[in-house]
Amino acid sequence: SERARERGIAYYTPSIDSYSASRLTMVSALQKALVNNELALHLQPKLDLRTSRISGVEALIRWPAREQPVPADEIITLAEQTGLIKPLTRWVLEQSLELRSRLLDSGHLLDLSVNISPNNLREPDFPIFVKRLMGAHLQHRGAIIFEVTETSMMQDPVNALKALNSLAYEGIPVSIDDFGSGYSSLSYIKQLPASEIKIDRSLITDLATREEDRVIVQTTINMCHSLGYQVVAEGVEDEATADLLKGMGCDMIQGYFLSRPLPLEQMLAWLSKRRE
Ligand code: C2E
Ligand code: CA
Ligand code: CA
Ligand code: CA
Question: Which residues form the EAL domain (predicted)?
Answer without folding.
Answer: 23-275
